[in-house]
Design a protein that fits this description.
The structure is a homodimer of 221-residue chains. Chain A is α/β, with parallel strands linked by helices. Chain A is 41% helix and 15% strand. Chain A is built from seven helices and seven strands; from the N terminus they run H-E-H-E-H-E-H-E-E-E-H-E-H-H. At the A-B interface, helix 1, helix 2 and helix 6 of A face helix 1, helix 2 and helix 6 of B.
Chain lengths: 221, 221
């Protein structure tokens, strides 16, 4: 496969200073390629009406950490996307693709087209434990609003519901914690299954994402 | 074992209203007993100079969720315990015992007396992966300040260091996320080992903690 090492272009041509910059750029290009090679297009999360910007930022950082490529945000019923702190969100949002939807129906339709099963997490009787889930399958995991949880619509349209086991008095985890614990369990299962050792993206996609991540002028919404 | 059901005291004696309150109290007493029965005295965490109150509150909630009984806070070098939001912290701090120390040395001395191994988490070469750790052993897991990580003293005095695997660009998880992912891996391992099916506390301790949790007048620092 052709490597896009345009950053080497000035190597050994100009001053030491420029060479140093080029080396750093080459290192960065190499890191981007390594990261893209481990991205998991078959694992995604949906945040429905999550309003706390700290939570959203923390979730995005965790998604980057486990190799999630796309995050879906659904804001409806008057709830809008929160204003994220520039510093922490900018560094996180650069490395995942965020998709916004106005309704659960639209979001789930897209996820179905991608062949993903959809699981919500809500306190209900027909739940399975996180640790009993098969998280190596193509899957979307839905987390709801801090106070109201996931909507009835999401519950009804999903394939199932799971619970993070708890043995405490409070029975309420922070939303970014709940999401991170879940996707780290997916990470653990997928590591064991060797899914981080083989590219999960097509060759053309790999190159496309390497180019997008390398593009410092890329804007993100 | 003698059960402390003092909350039943007025049952069937007075009005329906009082009976309802008693039933709720009885349910609560029952829940407290169940929760205490699953507490894990051989698993603890240490937060060193963690200053963000949101992080501290989220960590306490996660500790309650996985059955941690004691949390150790070490504040030194001018850093002080953060002011926690009354609402979220009060509900969380009621169900775990928080211990404050002025130095890593004092804290680790106590943990050694309890027979615990001590592991820090810091970006260093001699690290093992979280998922390779044996978290069923008596163990204390140390998490450092948001910006500076764990101190040199903690690193030097610990038995080892572990890393939460990451395959992203940022290489920096939120501290409450890092802590929660770690203790949930401990939870998973301990569930498999059957450690939530058998009391981990002595009978006298069980009763003592049930009494303490049932005492609404208990103050916590």
């Amino acid at each position: 496969m052709k490597r896009r090492l345009f950053l080497y272009i000035n190597m050994n041509k100009h001053s030491k200073e420029i060479s140093l910059i080029d080396c750093r750029s080459a290192e960065r290009a190499d890191k981007i390629k390594k990261v893209v090679n481990k991205r998991q297009p078959t694992l995604t999360i949906v945040l429905e009406n999550v309003h706390d910007p700290h939570n959203v930022s923390a979730v995005i950082r965790s998604c980057d950490a486990v190799g999630i490529l796309d995050i879906h945000f659904v804001y409806h019923s008057g709830q809008s996307f929160p204003v994220l702190a520039e510093k922490s969100s900018a560094s996180a949002r650069k490395w995942v693709f965020t998709h916004r939807h106005d309704s659960i129906e639209d979001c789930f339709k897209l996820l179905r087209q991608q062949g993903k099963s959809i699981f919500t997490t809500a306190m209900s009787v027909d739940s399975i434990s996180l640790f009993e889930m098969n998280l190596t399958q193509p899957i979307a995991l839905v987390f709801g609003n801090e106070h109201n949880g996931v909507s009835e619509t999401a519950l009804q349209l999903a394939d199932g519901n799971f619970l993070i086991p708890q043995v405490g008095m409070i029975q309420s985890l922070n939303i970014s914690v709940a999401c991170s614990v879940t996707i780290y369990e997916a990470f653990r299962q997928r590591m064991i299954a060797g899914m981080y050792n083989e590219n999960q993206l097509k060759d053309t996609e790999l190159q496309q994402y390497v180019n997008m991540f390398s593009d410092n002028s890329r804007t993100y919404k």
